[in-house]
Design brief:
Elements (H helix, E strand, L loop, with lengths): L3 H15 L7 H6 L3 H4 L1 E4 L2 E4 L7 H13 L2 H9 L32 H21 L12 E5 L6 H10 L7 E5 L4 H7 L8 E6 L6 H18 L4 H4 E5 L2 H6 L7 E3 L16 H7 L1 H20 L6 H15 L4 E7 L6 H13 L17 E4 L10 H6 L6 E8 L5 H20 L3 H10 L4 H11 L7 E8 L2 H22 L10 H15 L9 H13 L4
Helix pairs in contact: 1-4, 4-14, 7-12, 7-15, 12-13, 13-20, 14-20, 15-20, 18-19
The structure holds 6-O-phosphono-beta-D-fructofuranose.
Length: 547
């Protein structure tokens, strides 16, 4: 539903975005020596600096006006109250309940959400302790040293990103992830695993995802071959909402850690899906991760819009997408431990916000979620940052900087941080012809060479970035950081009036794969397809010797 004030708010933003100086940032810094203070905010351990964007007071007013016009606070309250905010799947959205104390009072209809969350967490804690103490062992009596998480999408990316960030070899168990159905993934991974010492977690919200079930069967065969069928119950655990399917797969009920459909896949790392984190880093670290996320939840639920980090992060993106018409967004953590964070955000943001119709099914009428991509710095500098500096379309970037490392190599860390800061500064300030001429002249270049190279060495500047600064990367600060982006996604869904919690767009390809598989295998005659698909199938079958 559109309201007059909502349309008026959109018009204001779009009109401001069309001004000739809408993307100018240097001018804003020149006019306001206090720009950093005025356009940065803190919540918990995170400092967010969005001064290196073209958001002025006037733009911020219009963005906040839109947030009020869409009743963002009311929509936030509806989510927290367990209302059906995922309208197309008729589900509540309660991942916040997974990290809340019982007294926070999350409910879903008549369900006692808090009690169920507590029961699952207690079971996870007890299981971790038993595995770590050796009370729970493999079928041959050996202690478990390795955890293999089989899952894909939200049942892989969140736990993988967290373990990449927090795990080190002094921790209780070694993590491994099997997501891709490509047999090469398993063929490589199995060489590193000893079945006697491997605990297998089949992580799937639905327990029907084709790739996960295929890989689960493959790994089950591997265990059975090595240890015998009777060993399977000791080695296999399920993390799922589908208790019927876990039972049908043969996983003992006491080895199933459940959650509910009010936890979206890409928001599920805080649920039983996070068991790999708790096993590999220890339950204490998992609890601290939850507590960090809870701290961000409290901030999100309580802080006024103009000081609310997730709201502001969402509004900055909205300005770039809808005000300035920028279709992509780069995630640049300057911390190698956050190497998988961009991959997690790719799913979180694009599966949530890659929508073209409103809640009521009408065309949105304006751009929604941008393309998200990223790599840690400084690797990204030697890869795609060229395009951010000199490409034809500006790409806003989020930098994540961590002040103190957990290693002793101070010079490396300072070099890393200096590079992170330098990229943001370079994107902002650019480099004009006078500077280039002066530098090249000082270096002894010939005037003709200077003029020839000038356009190539020119940096337009005024390219936007936002920086998130953390004191350290700990379970607690990581929890805050991930929750910050989860709530950003919620806010953008509310602002664009799209369902950020469904993912119908992944279904068609799954269905077509189901049709193509028996045709490719020769079990069924080839059906009707476009000539490209037919041509490729024929060539594949020929190359496989079946054509
Ligand atoms: O195909 C998309 C998706 O449904 C994601 O939303 C989800 O995270 C992933 O597949 C895995 O689903 P499941 O946990 O049910 O196996």
């Amino acid at each position: 539903m559109t309201s007059p004030s909502r349309e008026e708010a959109w018009t204001r933003i779009e009109t401001l975005g069309k001004r000739p100086d809408a993307a100018a940032i240097r001018r804003l810094f020149a006019e306001d020596p206090k720009r950093f203070e005025r356009f940065s905010r803190r919540a918990g351990d995170i400092l967010m600096d969005f001064s290196k964007t073209s958001i002025s007071d006037e733009v911020m007013d219009s963005l906040l006006h839109l947030a009020r016009a869409v009743a963002l606070e009311g929509q936030r309250a509806a989510m927290a109250a367990g209302q059906t905010v995922n309208v197309t799947e008729r589900r509540a959205v309660l991942h916040m309940a997974l990290r809340a104390p019982a007294e926070a009072g999350f409910t879903s209809g008549d369900e006692d959400v808090a009690a169920e969350v507590e029961t699952t967490l207690s079971a996870m804690r007890a299981f971790c302790e038993s595995v770590h103490s050796g009370a729970v062992r493999g079928a041959t009596g050996e202690t478990f040293t390795d955890v293999l998480n089989i899952g894909i999408g939200g049942s892989d990316l969140g736990p993988f990103a967290v373990l990449r960030a927090l795990w080190n070899p002094s921790m209780p168990m070694r993590p491994h992830f099997l997501a891709n159905v490509d047999g090469h993934a398993w063929a490589t991974l199995k060489r590193r695993l000893d079945p006697k010492r491997t605990l297998v977690l089949v992580a799937s919200k639905t327990f029907t995802t084709a790739e996960t079930m295929r890989n689960a069967r493959l790994v089950r065969e591997w265990l059975a071959e090595a240890l015998g069928e009777e060993a399977l119950p000791a080695h296999m655990v399920a993390l799922s909402t589908n208790l019927k399917a876990t039972a049908a797969f043969g996983i003992a009920p006491e080895r199933v850690f459940g959650f509910r459909d009010w936890v979206g896949g890409r928001f599920s790392l805080w649920s039983a899906i996070g068991l790999s984190i708790a096993l590999c880093c220890g339950f204490k670290a998992f609890s601290e991760l939850l507590a960090g996320a809870r701290a961000m939840d409290e901030h999100f639920l309580e802080a006024p819009l103009e000081d609310n980090l997730p709201v502001l992060l969402a509004l900055v993106t909205l300005w770039h997408v809808n005000g300035l018409g920028l279709p992509a967004h780069a995630m640049l953590p300057y911390d190698d431990r956050l190497a998988r964070f961009p991959a997690h955000l790719q799913q979180l943001e694009m599966e949530s916000l890659g929508k073209r119709v409103t809640m009521s099914g009408l065309p949105v009428g304006r751009a929604t979620g941008p393309v998200i991509f990223g790599e840690p710095g400084t690797n990204s500098q030697h890869s795609f940052l060229q395009l951010l500096h000199q490409g034809t379309t500006p790409v806003p970037a989020d930098f994540v900087l961590v002040a103190k490392p957990e290693h002793p190599y101070r010079q490396n860390h300072q070099l890393l941080l200096a590079n992170g800061l330098a990229q943001g500064e370079a994107l902002l300030r650019g480099r004009d012809s006078d500077e280039i001429r002066a530098e090249m002249t000082a270096a002894g270049a010939l005037p003709a060479d200077i003029e020839r190279l000038l356009p190539h060495r020119f940096f337009p500047g005024d390219r936007p970035s936002t920086t998130l600064l953390l004191p350290r990367l700990t379970p607690h600060t990581l929890g805050q950081l991930i929750a910050l982006y989860e709530h950003k996604v919620f806010c953008l869904g509310a602002l664009w009036d799209i369902d950020a919690f469904d993912q119908w767009g992944v279904e068609l390809g799954k269905q077509l794969a189901g049709v193509l598989l028996p045709e490719l295998d020769g079990d069924k005659p080839i059906g009707e397809h476009d000539s490209s698909t037919l041509g490729l199938m024929a060539e594949l079958r020929r190359l496989q010797g079946e054509g």
